[in-house]
Write a structure and sequence with these properties.
The structure is a homodimer. Chain A is an alpha/beta fold. The first copy, chain A, is built from twelve helices and twelve strands. The longest helix of chain A has 26 residues.
Chain lengths: 335, 335
């Protein structure tokens, strides 16, 4: 197993990536890495020589201000674009991990990395914790802002197979994000997608879901167009973080609250950990021939390590073969 | 000022509406009500005779399971459809308050109640609290699942005037809900809407907003298509409620947490009150000739009273005249 690591995608330089890679090398004897980015800085961070580590120099960095098309054309010496190039050209490379800007990563991956036969567009599928202790996947969370009903069906297929393969959920309960639970709700796109999902034999479709029920634990996978999926995940994360911040501020506003909080320190730490989506790994891009995992820009070493584990999980489970078979089955049924 | 009250829209029967009406009658000597619904039950709840109160009997009830078109056609004796009819036909009626199903209310209001000249579609504008103590309006939050860029511009105009008139925000900061802050982000609809908003002279447009920043206090009004606006508000509310529920459950899991929580009882009550959107009133429907305020289905008397106050606020501020003037100004500039 060989993973390409874009070491200069995130906000924290290469330290988290290098640290995570070192840990993973210790854990997985068959794993090797290509670390891409400023070679001198990577070497300094590695401190010693490691077998199974190749360093590829890429002095430039893609930033959030770069337009995807410009970055692909003009920043060929950036860690992200070079990492994608290696993933494409090195036949022995299985996957790529990047904590760089999402828009550029999607554009570059869509342009440069092949797709599973029959898949129209790759889609992001991040994972959030639910209030019942389980998880819920959101597909697509922003790779495709314009979607067709057929694309939403494909997101359901890819997401279902991903949850089966990587999280061992035997028959994932799939919901369609909509403005109401009734079948006829929503715009044309969502009404049409509802019909397709209902008719799909290999999908355990349980109906429409309102965004307020995302964390309820009643669903394993939420299928959505990339625009509303993006609104959904960011508002869920944003609200949780803002509320925890507010509680913290309020605790400091009175001595008696501070006293009470002393007894509850562990609990608050636990809530914070629970709502920190970094602890659940990155967003995987489903539908590409090779594995791509996108970590959050502010990922620390633990978060990058989670992304590495996700890539290994996906690779070990022959996910892409399963997606392709499911797709073929569904198409045969629909004819 | 005369308000029509749909007394059997919500989950709790007519008690909250009747109680709120009684309170409002005491506070506002020029206010009169038409209470619509099962007359006998309303009379029982009123207990005594009230001047300035008319009761109109409507034995049927619209439920969440009714299709809007069916409800309008077949449930003419329901409290909501009859209330809309009175609003339309009684020239002295200024506005209507209902806690009934949103879909039916929008459809009935759109069909039966005239619009402000030039307004393409009415839009909902609920209000949420921000973490800095202020408020933020969301327009449209679900009345229109399919939108054009011009409609989004109109939502910005109506929402801005509403915030000025009802909340005394002198120049509301208007943001466009999008998947990223950069100008070129989003699908065609949002890119086009961005251009229109930027060019509009009477709008204090501050750019795109990601859903995670809704509660940041950096924005007064978020403009969105009804589909993603609906996803936004329901996930914000849902996440806050789920998180508070989780904290409560976790407190009960250990004796030491329960002890700590004793010191913080007031604070937790305050957080709960803060995140209870009912305390911020209902969603007003902007763009109709007469005032329509939609309260939450689970509204108690306090929440219904807030809705009544909102209707009075809107009426006293000549909001519709201001919206129409703004619209005319913007159209003259655009020619």
């Amino acid at each position: 197993m060989k993973l390409i690591l874009d070491c200069f995608g995130g906000d924290k330089g290469c330290a988290p990536c290098v640290e995570a890679a070192k840990k993973a090398l210790g854990q997985y004897p068959d794993l090797s890495f290509v670390l891409v980015g400023d070679a001198e800085k990577i070497r300094a961070e590695l401190k010693e020589e490691f077998p199974r580590v190749e360093i590829v120099h890429a002095p430039d960095v893609v930033t959030g201000n770069d337009k995807p098309t410009d970055a692909i054309r003009l920043k060929r010496e950036s860690s992200m674009i070079k990492a994608i190039k290696i993933l494409r050209e090195d036949e022995s490379a299985d996957g790529l991990i990047s904590t760089g800007p999402t828009g550029v990563l999607i554009a570059a991956a869509t342009l440069r990395i092949g797709r599973i036969d029959g898949i129209r567009r790759p889609a992001f599928c991040p994972i959030l914790p639910t209030m019942r202790g389980g998880i819920v996947g959101i597909c697509d969370s922003g790779a495709n802002v314009e979607c067709s009903p057929e694309m939403l069906l494909q997101f359901a297929i890819m997401g279902s197979e991903y949850l089966k393969a990587a999280f061992h959920i035997s028959t994932p309960r799939v919901a369609l994000l909509n403005v109401g639970t009734e079948e006829e709700k929503g715009d044309d796109l969502h009404r049409e997608a509802h019909k397709l999902l209902k008719a799909a034999e290999g999908i355990n479709f349980v109906g429409n879901m309102e965004s307020r029920d995302l964390l309820s634990g009643n669903y394993d996978l939420v299928v959505c167009d990339g625009f509303s999926g993006n609104v959904l995940i960011k508002s869920t994360e944003g609200t949780a973080l803002e509320l925890l911040k507010k509680i913290k501020k309020d605790i400091y506003s009175r001595e008696i609250y501070k006293l009470g909080a002393l007894f509850m320190k562990k609990m608050f730490e636990e809530e914070k950990r629970f709502m920190n989506y970094q602890n659940y790994g990155g967003s995987v891009l489903l539908g590409t021939e090779k594995i791509i995992v996108k970590g959050h820009g502010s990922s620390d070493a633990t978060a990058v390590y989670k992304c590495i584990e996700q890539a290994l999980n996906m690779s070990g489970s022959s996910l892409n073969e399963k997606i392709q078979k499911h797709l073929e089955r569904e198409e045969t049924t629909n004819v």
